[in-house]
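Posting for a labmate who doesn't have an account.
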Amino acid sequence: MLIYTHLAITLFFVLLLMPFAEYKIVFLISALISSILPDIDSKFSTLGKKKILRILQFFVRHRGILHSFSFLFLISLFLILFYQKIAFGFVLGYGLHLIADGFTKNGIKPLYPFKRKIRGIIRTGGKLETMIFVVFLIADLFLVLRFFVDIF
């Protein structure tokens, strides 16, 4: 999926879970950043186009280890032990990225290094993804309005 779809999906869940977050701004920022982080392994992604990340891309394949729940588990343990304030948002954003990419035709290897892939029917950048983006964007707007205007 494309960056804006990942951000729209993550924002939706952040807005739903915001009341349960102790550090709301940290939760929001860590979730949004981590929702695009797995794509640093792609030279075509917004983050992956940064020259400094070309070194990383030399060592990891797109939709390889960074697109696995194995990696998310390891990072989550580290964050829970040393950076609890960002752990909740990070796990949410990163996990949603993996779930969303699991619905694409390219899919993900959820238990890397095992080869088994899960995949779906959504073509990255295709009409169905665009429709999903629009639905989540509208839902995001309603949730934001709900926070600021008591009309619902």
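Reply:
Got it, the structure tokens are right above this. The mean pLDDT is 89.
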